[in-house]
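TL;DR need structure tokens for one chain.
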Amino acid sequence: MLQGLMQARPLLVSAITDYAEQAHGKREITSRLVDEPDWRYDYRGLAQRSRKLANALLDLGICAGDRVSSLAWNTHRHMELFFGVTGSGAVLHTANPRLHADQIIYTINHAGSRILFFDSSFTKLVESIRPRLLTVEHFFSLSPSGAAATYEDFISPASSEFVWPIFDENSGAILCYTSGTTGSPKGVLYSHRSIVLHAMGAGLPAAFGLTAFDVVMPCSSLYHATAWGLPFVAAIAGSKFVLPADRLDPESLHELIEREGVTFTGGVPTIWTAYLEWLDRLEKSPAGLRRVVIGGSAVPVSMAQSFLRQHNVEVLQLWGMTETCPLGVVATPTPQLASRGETEMWETIWTRQGRLQFGIELKLVDEAGCCVAHDGHTPGALMVRGPWVVERYFGSAEPAVDSEGWFNTGDVATLDEDGFMRITDRAKDVIKSGGEWISSIDLENAAAGAPGVKVAAVVGLAHPRWDERPLLVVEPHEGAVISITVVMDHLRDKIVRWWLPDSIIIAEVPLTATGKIDKKQLRIQYQGYYDDAKT
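>> reply
TL;DR here they are.
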């Protein structure tokens, strides 16, 4: 094999920091804070303060490979940890504050972190768990109040002059844990190489398509799979970056969208359900917003329709996992779809999680492990592999992939000839009734468009005759009154008769730490619901 004669410079996060400073140094970053006035600076300021952080970590004795944890919202200081900690050679563990306290303790101890940075919102939480954090030596409040030692005091004496070290691009950079809905959370250790490649891939026109003219506001949390990689994608593109801190209520988001000229944002469906309801109630519209990428769970078609037809905002579905950095697929238009007309194009996009992206391979297999047809109709277990897909979990000796490098996502999906993927269910959530399969996702999507419905959740429950039958739980919009008869009539026009739920319950729908519907909790809550059903 003849070797190429090109430079073998490693792909490191620090290269993104340097590039953003040199190419887009004056592009603005604005951040809300928990208990302070808004902060404004630019990519040059981000780079300078990240270098100060790196020097401060070095002076404290933090070495390459050491872990540093954060319990923080979407703020500029949290973003500085992304660049300063990783650039120094240490590993940033972004702890999820929405997990149970025992799980937070588990992840920080499992990571073996030596430092914990936290927002003042979590001061009481940190005080309560501090005796159980076995490896943490230093605690710093990211806010000026709430603790004796603060982030600003920590980095203030340090020099902004720092030469980023050069090391193996496969070194660990950021450690994210799964939400742990089954068993203990699992750590996914992103390498510098995977982060840089993911950021380059996510910025392509076929994915997020960000440019220097965009204003990006991540409503996906920085602690959840690095806010879908948006801090790194935006830094490469030179997009203005807007950080909402902990205020994700509709009024606060709308104020930022209008004031800062946000063109691109992203988050889980529950955020946008509340936002759309607020816009409709106040008869408002987000003037400059152009694209919303939504992931975490399936996007109701009614939500996508409302954004486009009422507010001229395109909705792009995203599918991914903590284990995929998280970009897997994004539902963006293609010439093939456009040739069928705008209506069919958007209807296809709204009912698919996305299309193949360079860097991610997908395949579907049946129960015997054999590949199934990519015909858009035949479902199979979804397998993925690629340079930003997990190989093994942090601390585990066993690989998380098969002998060919394929990772089983736990999703059931279809793939069509145009490369579009549609999730039909989680393997554990698909409902088998009378020997036939019912897609809980499709049923939820149909129910979400019914009058007054804010969130719709479907679980399969044991049934004495049919093995399993679907139970539909719907949560109403604030002030709305839901009619079970109206919801059922709405469903009759959308799905086949035998898919109709045997019961509809009006109640609050529980969510996981990442904003997804907590079906595990629903199954526990309604266990035995159909036990007395007639056989």
